[in-house]
Please model this.
Amino acid sequence: MVDLKQQYLKIKGEIDSAVAGVLDSTVFIGGRQVNDFSKNLAGYLGVKHVIPCANGTDALQIAMMALDLQPGDEVITPSFTYVATTEVIALLKLKPVFVEVDPRTFCVDSESIRKAITPKTKAIVPVHLYGHSCDMEAIMAIAREHDLFVIEDNAQSIGSDYTFKDGTTKKTGNIGIISCTSFFPSKNLGCYGDGGAVCTNDDALAVKLKMIANHGQSKRYYHDIVGCNSRLDALQAAILNIKLPLLDSYVNARRKAADFYDKAFSGNEKIITPFRADYCKHVFHQYTLILENIDNPESFRDGLSAFLAENKIPNMIYYPVPAHRQKMFASFGGAGYNLEKTDWLTHRVISLPMHTELDEEQLNFITKKVLEYVNR
Ligand SMILES: *Cc1c(COP(=O)(O)O)cnc(C)c1O
Model:
């Protein structure tokens, strides 16, 4: 699905010397590289505070811990997402409330959020899925109306922009009260191990987020609140300091590949290519097709997946089981949910290779094989 080797080879000189620099300094935890990265990412996103941490899942957990949510408080989240988003809600003894996505954008549906609000609702976690931003203007309006926190899950969409109706544009991850992201190697800004970050414009929250990520202390061995141990290490920060300035060029390479796919599949009655809303700059973390006008979509989709695999074309189903159908959430009434759009998508989506190193020959081969199967 990704080609991290080719991407690395293009920047090998810089990466290797940065890694050697960290080894030579023996500052493996904290230090200049981590502080620089925090400032660099804040500058890129236009956000006031970036608190690096160990991974994107921790980022979500730290965010929810900082907002003082109480056991039983309800947190609204799409069911159509990666498990990390929903898992941390349950881990903190909060109640995940699963809602629908807009089947065009794959992102949480704002009307569905509105309907799910109860007196116990405290927060909304919109997930900018596959590189497409949620409709943040609508979501922020609902949050203001009902006094709810908005925690953006920006793990798949770093680099994306959202444009408001008045023409102002903000990076995703700079809109909610807190945002969370991941530097897992295959993400749009990936390091060479695990990494993540929490972002906010709120000064007091920033202090608290930083404390929580560091055992609840701001002064060493004086622990004021219950926290955890979640650090981005210096080696990963050094790598990210080299890759961050390349992020926009990486996004452009992904968009070029997406344009190629779009053109090849356009007009095919069985394929819906990814929608790009006017308000969003899509950063194509994934390139995900929806198969339609087919009698038995799930078996057709699985057939296409097997056919591509036979032809050595990687492909994935993101995600084969939506959160409300995961065993993990049985005790949260998962089976009682009726999320038709989520189920509809789950049976029809398939993601094709998407990364910065796709060339025309590969794209030609992939699209030819997809069409060969679909037009059978
Ligand atoms: C990757 C991802 C996460 C978690 O990130 P990790 O660094 O793997 O913990 C959270 N949410 C979404 C939507 C993701 O894609």
